[in-house]
Amino acid sequence: xxxxxxxxxxxxxxxYSGPENxxxxxxxxxxxxxxxxxxxxxxxxxxxxxxxxxxxxxxMVE
Length: 62
Known about the structure:
Helix content is 18%, strand content 21%. The model has no long low-confidence stretch (mean pLDDT 85).
């Protein structure tokens, strides 16, 4: 099995998530950027967002 850079990231999901594993996971990247992926299919890769994009997203969902 090959490993991708995403394998070494510290992924986390909301404590509000249920055991079904239908969640968005987030991992920190250098410079405050974030990696976002679907926990149902982590092999599909992740979306990289800048620190300011992450902040804007959080501001919209609060």
